[in-house]
Amino acid sequence: MVLLMTEEDEANKRSYYGLDRVLAISDCVFAFAVTLLVLDLAVPALSSGATSADLWEALSKEYVGFISYLLSFFIAAIWWSAHHRNFRYIRNSDLTLSWLNLLFLLWIALLPFFTKILEQYGNLQIAVVLYAADQAAAGFLLTLSWWYASLNHRLVDENLKSSAIRWVLRRDAIAPVFFVVSIGVSFISPTAAFMFWFGMIPVLIIASRLERKGGKQ
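Above: the chain's sequence. Below: its structure in token form.
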């Protein structure tokens, strides 16, 4: 009996530390991506005799960069929040979940790169498509990670209700669907596709509230 308990405890310990490492690298990648986003903001180069008006005028010309930064920061926050909420219910990890999570992080790490492309070439459809494709890939992998972990309660809390599992899956799928649709919108107007992304924020807020109510049923 003592041997069996020891083996079980050792298995739980390995599982715990596997999950712990998944969460650790995830937080590191998010921190890295958000830091690179702000580092891409350019400080205007002015002459020594420049006035406050000159600085303000120079900063106002960088509004596209600021808007791109704010958009990407909020999108990163959405992914981090969804990832955090998903793993709040996940109790164990395995090799498949670890790789799904790493593939999700691959696209998160690319966020600063595609943000820079969007900032410089936002008037071009390909820039919008590349940004949307990157985020759609991240969203689908996050959704796939939850589907894998929650299927038959494989890695999630055994007491988690099926209704709560379905609500999380639906909520995770909202953002990638938005980005896929925006690719179609970009054929009409790259600017319209860019603005379309902001509509995702209130939809996610409503979905989160519905999730809290639906998960209790």
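The chain has one domain: 2-214.
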